[in-house]
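This is your field. Have a critical look at both lines of this record:
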Amino acid sequence: MSKSKGTIEAEISKAITQWEKDFLGRGSISVKSDILRDMIIVNLRGILTPAEYVVAETKDGMLLIKRTRTECVESGVEDLKKVIQSITGEKVKSFHTDISTNTGERIMVFKLINDYENSFNS
């Protein structure tokens, strides 16, 4: 029996959380993944430390936090792509990410080669 879309989304969320703990040293408070057409959209909440919120109060500080956090994630992007491929069987065509220093959320978008959501409709 093949896995449901919800099961795969939960597996992705769990794997991304584990990657954060292993690679970044700490995980976010919550992770929600959604499969939409040829994309996997991951919403991570609670990723900033209390100190990072204070630093992000100035424009220079905000840019520094965004740049540092983005470089950390980008340096592990090949591992992230492997995580997605191991769970979905789909190759990742591109990866996009941004962080909000206001809400402490990060969005990750994995653009796949194929319309993965369509595989659940057949």
About this structure: The chain has four helices and four strands. The beta strands are 30-36, 39-45, 92-100, 105-112. The mean pLDDT is 94.
